Amino acid sequence: MTDRASRAVLGLLGLFGLLGLFGLSAVAGCGLVVTNERPTYEELSGAEQTAVKTILGELRAFDTKLRAHGAPPIDALLDQEHIDVALRGLIMASNIGAGEVHISTFDNLTPDQRQLVTGWFGKTSPEQARTTYEAFFYRFLAASQGAKQVSYQALTPAYVNVHESVFNIERHAIRATVSFCRETGRQGLLAQVGQACQPLRQQYDPVWGSQFSKQHLKDNFHTLADLEAPTGYMYYVCRWYALALQESAGFSGDLTWLQTL
Q1: CB 128 within 8 A of CB 44
Q2: Helices 187-208 & 166-183 angle (0-180, nearest 10)
Q3: Which residues, in sequence order, are CB contacts of 57 under 8 Å at separation 6+?
Q4: Got the DSSP string for 190-204?
Q5: What pairs with residue 83 in β-bridges?
Q6: Residue 101 in contact with residue 56, Cβ under 8 Å?
Q7: pLDDT of residue 23
Q8: Hey, which of 60, 96, 128, 151 would disulfide with 123, CB 3.0 to 4.6 Å?
Q9: Domain locations in the chain?
Q10: With contact defined as beta carbons under 8 Å apart, do 236 and 170 qualify?
Q11: What end-to-end distance do the CA atoms of the chain give, in Å?
């Protein structure tokens, strides 16, 4: 693994709550070194800086929605130095409550990973997949990290990671993100996510469709959320998205869920 790929691995190991689910033994098992070192914003490439701006735009919009509902702001995530995109060879979007968001950029994926993503989204080339990936990760999943921050601030990361399952943390965050999109004119983004999930669901419903459950995710987390090829976890994200379209009670109701779990 390169030096850049090992930076901020604490956040990466928190991919969808890994530390909270498995504890420090899982960290050792991954063979990764925990470090908080990473480039500053000024040291990022132009493409990485552009990704940070897009991610921050979604988080700031989510924060504005929170303030309109009288909820505490998510100030910790609104700093460009707290948006980590400088990692290579990993596919992830995470927030473990350390006041930082970690999201992989398309340009930092390996050629094999770009082909994997191309297959997920039913595209014919990586360049076609890029637009979908950037909308999914830099916008939709970025906003969902803001939703998680609401829970961490209301209940503390220690409480959330001990008392709540990864399944429900993600489910609640994605449901709030769908409500956020619906109520802020982001129907186009929701449509992009839905279109991205269609081929992924078609390919993997036969594999995981009957096993979509909290227990199956817990029992098979290392395989489903493989940092290098999290196909199983992306399938779960698309299933949570489908549930959110049906279950969302509006942003106000979903905000209450985030603050109480």
Answers
A1: no
A2: 150
A3: none
A4: HHHHHHHHHHHHHHH
A5: 101
A6: no
A7: 35
A8: 128
A9: 46-78+110-260
A10: yes
A11: 37
The per-residue pLDDT of the chain, averaged, comes to 88
DSSP 8-state symbol, 109? S
pLDDT tens digit sequence for 191-244:
999 999 999 999 999 999 999 999 999 999 999 999 999 999 999 999 999 999
Note whether 93 and 103 are within 8 A (CB): yes
pLDDT classification of 38: cutoffs 50, 70, 90: confident
By C-alpha distance, which of 139, 141, 133, 118 is closest to 199? 118
- Residue 241, both tokens: 């998205």
| Structure tokens belonging to residue 172 | 């609640």
Helix (H, G, I), strand (E, B) or coil at 132: helix
Q: Are 234 and 133 within 8 A, CB to CB? A: no
Residue type, 185: G
DSSP secondary structure code for residue 173 in this structure: H
Q: Which two tokens stand for residue 166?
A: 């990864």
Q: Please check whether residue 235 is in contact with residue 208, taking contact to mean a CB–CB distance below 8 angstroms.
A: yes
Q: How many residues does the chain have?
A: 261
Identify which of 45, 26, 42 has the alpha carbon closest to the alpha carbon of residue 34. 26
Sign of the dihedral defined by the CA atoms of residues 206, 207, 209, 210, in that order: positive
> Structure tokens of 196?
């991205």
Residue 220, phi then psi, degrees to nearest 5? -125, 25
In the predicted structure, residue 30 carries a pLDDT above the cut 50: no
* Residue 23, token pair as written in the block: 């504890």
Query: Is the Cβ–Cβ distance between 233 and 16 less than 8 Å?
Result: yes
H-state helical runs in 95-141: 111-120, 126-134
